Amino acid sequence: MNIYFSCSITGGRSDQAVYQKIVEFLVDYGHEVPTAHLSREDVLEDERVVLPADVYERDVRWVNECDALIAEVSTPSHGVGYEIALALLQGKPVLCCYRQGKTVSKMILGNSQPGLSLYAYESASDMLDAVERFLEQKSDGPNVIARE
To answer: Staple partner for 119: which of 41, 107, 108, 130, CB 3.0–4.6 Å?
Structure first.
């Protein structure tokens, strides 16, 4: 399965270790993750040299080509919100994970769009279990795996 992984880059990298665990989990299970580089600690250095128009074209192409999108939304990001909306408008399943207790945009939490799943996690293993359940389930309605 081709999974678009979405996370904050310029908005903050305090959850980088979590990003890395998600990507490693997906790759270990044989999924294609074109955005795997976003989980790396040095991603800001790499992305600094890419022009904004190139990032936009690349990322939109990757969303268009993906089978599902998984986003870690504990750290607010305009780009992540845009990618989530784009995937949902295309009818792709989307999982938004966030650390329990974090303030998450009401545009995400209140969204009843079919295909959107939300998960407030307490630990990395808890979150990875939710990722696995998300990838296994088939649903055409809104899904709340768990809410805070």
So the answer is: 130
